[in-house]
Amino acid sequence: MAALRDEMLTIPQVIEEIGVPRATFYRWRQLRKGPKAIKLPNGAVRIRRSELERWIGTLEEAA
């Protein structure tokens, strides 16, 4: 079986998954406290699933 590609999530998908208000997520991005994102040439922002999981893992370690 071919290796699965890393899923690219939209911001609404990430917000729904982690359960925070949109404003909170954007504040985290502004403060560079959120997961690393990729800005596509069309201006859309995506977050790799692996990056979201890595970021959540760092929060677990800090708790």
Describe the structure.
There is one protein chain. Helices cover 49% and strands 14% of the residues. With 63 residues, it is of the alpha+beta class. Strands 1-3-2 form a three-stranded antiparallel beta sheet. A hairpin with a 5-residue loop joins strand 2 and strand 3. The radius of gyration is 12 Å and the shape is globular. The mean pLDDT is 91.
How big a fraction of the residues is strand? 5-15%
Report the order of strands and helices.
EHHEEH
Overall mean pLDDT stands at 91
Major pleated sheet: 3 strands, antiparallel
Task: Note the total helix count.
Answer: 3
Q: What is the terminal-to-terminal distance?
A: 37 Å
Given as residue ranges, the uncertain stretches (5+ residues, pLDDT < 50) are none
Instruction: Give the structural class.
Output: alpha+beta
Count every beta strand, where a strand is a DSSP E run of 2 or more residues: 3
Radius of gyration, in angstroms, nearest whole number? 12 Å
Shape: globular
Q: Residue share in helices?
A: 40-55%
Strand order of the largest sheet: 1-3-2
Question: What kind of assembly state do the chains in view correspond to?
Answer: single chain
